[in-house]
Design a protein that fits this description.
The termini are far apart. The chain is mostly helical. The model has no long low-confidence stretch (mean pLDDT 86). The longest helix is centred in the last third of the chain and has 34 residues, at 281-314. Strands 1-2 form a two-stranded antiparallel ribbon. It has helices spanning 2-9, 13-30, 36-48, 70-80, 84-96, 100-104, 108-114, 117-128, 133-140, 147-156, 162-174, 176-186, 190-193, 206-223, 228-243, 247-269, 275-278, 281-314, 334-346, 353-379; strands spanning 58-61, 65-68.
Amino acid sequence: MSFLLEGLLSVTWQQLVMYLVGIALIWLAVEKEYEPSLLLPMGFGAILVNLPLSGVLDQLVQGKVPAAGIIEWLYKVGIESSEMMPLLLFIGIGAMIDFGPLLSQPFYFLFGAAAQFGIFAAILIACLMGFDLKDAASIGIIGAADGPTSILVSQVLGSNYIGPIAVAAYSYMALVPIIQPFAIKLVTTEKERRIHMSYNPKSISRTTRIAFPIAVTIIVGFVSPQSVALVGFLMFGNLLRECGVLNSLSKTAQDDLVNLITLLLGLTISFSMRAEQFVNPQTIMIMALGLVAFIFDTVAGVLFAKLVNVVLRIFRRPPVNPMIGGCGISAFPMSSRVVQRLATEAEKGNIILMQAAGTNVAGQVASVIAGGLVISIVSQYL
C-alpha cells in the first residue's frame, strides 16, 4: 500500500500533461488515421515513460542495482549510439520510391531543391529567438517533412529537444492534407491551379534505374560526406527495388522492415518525451517554428515554379502548374496527392499527378541531402 501511495503521490502536473499528449497522439492515429504506425506507439510510449517509477526507464536488479529499462536501452542502442533505427527505415523508404518520373524529367529536382528554403529560414529564425546553433539547426530540419531525417540530424548534432522535434516532424507530416492546401492557395490563383501539363514520359532503361542510386551516392559522398549515411541507405533501398534480382527482399524492406522499425522508433523516441524535458515553453516554440518551416518550404517551392513560368514565357514554352513546386517536401506520396486533389477541384479532369510525383521524389532526395549539409555546416562551428 505504501508503494502504491508513493507512486500516486509522486505524479507531477507535467506528467499529467504528457498523459494528455499521449492520448491526443493515440486519438490522431486511431480516429484520424494520421501516421498510425508511428503516432500510436509514440503516444503510448509517452504515457509509459511518464508513469512514476516506470520500469521502462529503470529496472531494479535484485532489489537495489539500477539497470536501463527497455525503452531507455532501445534509445541508447538504436538512436543515441548508432542512429541505427532511422537509417534502417531509410532502406524501406528507398525501396518504396519509384524515381521514374524524376529520371524522365530531371528538371523536377530544381523544384525539390527550392522547397528546402523553409529549413534554412527556420534555422535563422530559431537563432534569432535564442536557440543555440545545434538546436536551431535541428528545429529547422522539421521543415523537410521527413521524420527520420529530423531525428537523425537532431541526434547527431546533440540537440536538447529530440522529443519535441520528432513529435513536430511526424505531426506535420501527418497534417500535410490540412496544411499544404492552405499554403498553396495563399500564393496561387485559381487560374494558375487550373494549368494543364502534358506528360510524355521517356522510357527509362533498367541500366539507368540501377545506375541512378549508385551515382547519387557517390556524388553526394564527395560533395557532402556527412550525408552519406542518409542518402546511402535511401539509395540502397532503391537499388534493392530496381536491381530486379532481390524482389523478395525489396518487398520485405517496403512492408515488414518499414512497419517494424517505425513501430520500434515510435516507442523508442518516447524516451525523449519525459515530462521534465518535454513540458516547457521551448516545446511550444519548436512546434511553432516547425510549422513556419513547413509553410515556408511549400510557399518557396510554389514561388520558384512561378519564377520558372516567367522564364518559360520568354521562350514561348508551355507553363508548369505552380502547385507542383509545393510537392518538393519529403512527405511522399501525400503531397503529390494533395496537389492532384487541388488541381481537380480547380478544374475537373486536370491530371498533374505524375508531374507532382516527380517533384515529390525529388524533394525526398533533396531533404535528405539538406539534412546532411546542415550537419556538415553546423559541425564546423560546434
